[in-house]
Amino acid sequence: MLTLEESEVIESLGAVWNTLCSDIVGHGPPREGDLQEAAFHIHALQRMVGSQAAAREYPLSFRLLGETLREP
Fold first, then answer.
1. Residue in 59, 63, 56, 62 with CA at minimum distance from that of residue 72
2. Could you list the residue range(s) of the whole structural domain that residue 41 is in?
3. Tell me: the pLDDT tens digits for 4-52?
4. Of residues 63, 1, 3, 11, the one with CA closest to residue 42
5. Structure confidence at residue 70 (pLDDT)
6. Quick check: is 57 in a domain?
7. Cβ-proximal residues to 39 (8 Å cutoff; 6+ apart), any chain
8. Would you say residue 59 lies in a domain?
């Protein structure tokens, strides 16, 4: 299960996406490609934060961000 802080970060990254789409990225021909590139990175960050739950559940298989894999 994600912590409150982890859930908030994932939601905040979703808000960044919404702001990029509506207020920052223009509507010219490169828009689709630029948004695809941004989505790739936003999703990567969301997956990194989401992986924390797996690391807590399976500490011998996955590591927490900023930590090392635990010894059996």
1. 59
2. 1-7+33-72
3. 999 999 999 999 999 999 999 999 999 999 999 999 999 999 999 999 9
4. 11
5. 80
6. yes
7. 17
8. yes
